[in-house]
Amino acid sequence: RPLPELGEEAQGSSPEGEPKRGMIDDSLMKEAIDVSKEIEEAIKKKSLLPKEAVNKVVDGFVESIQSSQTALLNLLDAKNFDETTYTHMINVSLLSVLFGKKLNYNETGLKVLGLAGLLHDIGKTLISPEILNKTTPLTEAEADILRKHPIYGYELLKRYSDYGGIVQKIVLLHHEKVSGKGYPFGLRGEQMGEAAQIVSICDLFDSITSDHPYRPARPFWAALIEVYQQSGISFAPRLAKSFITDIPSYLATEPIFPVGSFVVLSTGEVAEVIDFDNPHTIFPTVMIYISGNREIMRYPIQVNLALDDTRSIRSL
User: What is the pTM of this model?
Assistant: First the structure.
């Protein structure tokens, strides 16, 4: 069955029956929402960003994630579209700090990731709501405008803040791809830098699991599979592998694909999950019962997806 929505497990119960606390305190989350709104208001008024308040929130994220004894990062779940911008900013910041921690970034590096994650989409504040909220496909002209938001964000940071070049660079390059097919410059390889890729992966993950005017939120597993599929295309394989291997256990307690789940593979085959080495893996061992031609197989095939690079799970 699909995983519960992100953040649901953070409200689960401990073995003693007491509510489980997430990594981030509710008061800090509220403060983060308020700061996100202050950032937007400052840009609308063409005034300096509230640096002291922003730094306080990001410092709180870093301290909470570094010192947390719980395995669960409680991401925000937007209840309606009006909140999506703020929750996305906050979630990308939190995920970026957590991912940086798993990659052994020091405290200074984690703060940079947290700041860049929180500010990565500020350029969208200069784009028409009619484009951002459009429920039908964008025209090419509209898509060109949207693709300028990293440049707008970079220019806003230069004009209305004194955040250093590293934060500015991450905001500018977070939509580049290692394949060279990203924007705004079409950089290739790891020219965009590791930090920008970290924020980019976290941006993709939270975007997929969030509601948008043009599509509903998709499940947790779908976002992980998309990160896997973008390995070597959008992100360096080493980073994509680290994210899908190290991050899921911090977001949910239940298996991603429980034993007994039926899944459709990238080959079109239908299989049952029969085992896994790690409950948070997207590469369980499966038994294939139906071929890609939709024929029942006389002799089912057992496959460990972790060892088979020709197959992956496409859907439940």
Answer: 0.90
